[in-house]
Amino acid sequence: MAMSRSRTPDLLRNFLRSSLFSSPPSDVGLGLGFGLSRSVTYMPRPGDGAPRAVTLIRGDGIGPLVTDAVEQVMQAMHAPVYFESFDGIHGDMTAVPPAVVESIRRNKVCLKGGLATPVGGGVSSLNVQLRRELDLYASLVNCFNLPGLPTRHENVDIVVIRENTEGEYSGLEHEVVPGVVESLKVITKFCSERIAKYAFEYAYLNNRKMVTAVHKANIMKLADGLFLESCREIASKYPGIKYNEIIVDNCCMQLVSKPEQFDVMVTPNLYGNLVANTAAGIAGGTGVMPGGNVGADHAIFEQGASAGNVGTENLVEQKRANPVALLLSSAMMLRHLRFPSFADRLETAVKHVIAEGKYRTKDLGGYSTTQEVVDAVIEVLD
């Protein structure tokens, strides 16, 4: 494991502080209707422009490629962040190195490439370890249509909020007798209420109109019944937000036929993983959907959908991984760090490149390399 730490040059710091007061790119400047104009400026608190340390886990497969893409773009836009970078962290390790966990605890924020979890065997997922260690109880994946990227469905804008710490991912498995394995699903009122509260709070703060609870309470009457009961209690405190419920199998069918009907979805752990990857595939693919994991004190941002987040050997060798998902996740990170102007600039530039259609990786129907997409984004930023 190697660690490198790069600080934003001191000469840039005055520029970084002053640039927070500048306006984001206008629609006219980009020639497209993706810019966000503000009638009231963002007013930071004194000291908010100081560069922030972010833990960077490069991960497996395409992870180093796409995390390097983010670093290049952050440097090009002079974003007020610097990275504490960790190489050599792989999904087949038995545990997350203590130095990595300590770095995240200290910095509060992490950007992560994909970590491959071995199938079967005795190695537990490092992703799950991090969520538990840091109590990152809410996973959020935003699945939406990108202008200029054709998909089967239009007007898709779904946010999947998934409970991240219990359910089938509790890891309580044992062999009762040879040939018989018992795996326990744990649902608690505490965790169900806090994920429901997070979903409704997210909807309220982001002007969303509806929250849908996904469940299988017709079969798992106690476990998913408790989850639904908790969601209903929280829903009663938000009368301005519509609340409904849907069984998970019907949810999957509705997603692939009429995804535009969904707004915010709140789910137990396993269902959320399935629903988020399905919604991502519908809206444009896992390579373009941002996401993150958040708790009371820490946050980790990564590609939103887990499918394909480490890529294939061919993608790595040819250096053609799609960096869009992690670039948009880093825009989410910048908003989390209260750097909204930088987040707007980055998101606008990425959407411009996608809409223009000249530089796209193979998963989006193009032939571009990762670096070519990065260079195109930087050109728009400049």
Write the layout of secondary structure elements.
Elements: E1 2-5, H1 10-19, H2 27-30, E2 52-57, H3 63-76, E3 81-87, H4 98-107, E4 109-112, H5 126-134, E5 138-144, E6 157-163, E7 173-177, E8 180-183, H6 189-205, E9 210-215, H7 223-235, E10 242-247, H8 248-257, E11 264-267, H9 269-283, E12 290-294, E13 299-303, H10 313-318, H11 324-336, H12 340-356, H13 370-381
Parallel strand pairs: 2-3, 2-4, 4-13, 6-11, 9-10, 9-11
Antiparallel strand pairs: 1-3, 5-6, 5-12, 7-8, 12-13
Helix pairs in contact: 3-11, 3-13, 6-7, 8-9, 11-12, 12-13
What's a quick, concise take on this entry?
This protein has 382 residues and is of the alpha/beta class. The chain has helices spanning 10-19, 27-30, 63-76, 98-107, 126-134, 189-205, 223-235, 248-257, 269-283, 313-318, 324-336, 340-356, 370-381; strands at 2-5, 52-57, 81-87, 109-112, 138-144, 157-163, 173-177, 180-183, 210-215, 242-247, 264-267, 290-294, 299-303.
